[in-house]
TrEMBL record:
This is Flavodoxin. PANTHER family: EXPORTED PROTEIN-RELATED, FLAVODOXIN-LIKE DOMAIN-CONTAINING PROTEIN. InterPro entries: Flavoprotein-like_sf. It comes from the Bacteria.
Length: 164
């Protein structure tokens, strides 16, 4: 199954999980690069404001996204209860989505339900799989089992052996 993981990561936590998932699925990674600086404490506040105000920053995504895939996993952090502004900017650009789309969110402890629902609405179809991981579990490397379950659900094969 041709799979691409489109990921935005401000601190590296989401990228860490996306790389682990890519190893499990044998997927390509396409990082969303944001022209707006979200680094450090000031960047954190800027990101929170962009999320609350629903601003869509300018982004760049690798051309691999435009190639045909069977599955796209969209991955990013939750900011103020919403999917991160760069992730929302990607979806607002109406990318060509394959028949199977899955969502992987990371968060510091806030409830990701609103972000999950909002992304599913933008995708325009039910998600093949969804997973929200807490930052503490990522930093403590306690995400392997839920990530493997997510990968199986995303490809639609509960008992399929995975690459990684």
């Amino acid at each position: 199954m041709q799979t691409v993981i489109v990921v935005y990561s401000r601190t590296g936590n989401t990228l860490k999980v996306a790389q682990a998932l890519a190893g499990i699925l044998g997927a390509e990674i396409a990082e969303i690069r944001c022209q707006r600086n979200y680094d450090g404490a000031v960047g954190f506040l800027r990101g929170a404001m962009d999320s609350v105000m629903r601003r869509k920053p300018s982004i760049d995504v690798a051309q691999v996204v435009a190639q045909p895939h069977d599955l796209m996993v969209i991955a990013g952090p939750v900011w103020t209860g919403r999917a991160a502004a760069p992730l929302m900017a990607f979806l607002a650009g109406r990318p060509k989505l394959p028949g199977r789309v899955a969502l992987l969110l990371t968060h510091g402890g806030s409830n990701p339900a609103k972000a999950l629902a909002e992304v599913e609405t933008l995708v325009g179809a039910p998600l093949a799989a969804r997973l929200a991981l807490k930052e503490a579990d990522i930093k403590g490397d306690r995400f392997s089992a839920p990530l493997t379950d997510f990968a199986r659900e995303a490809i639609g094969e509960a008992d399929l052996p995975l690459i990684g």
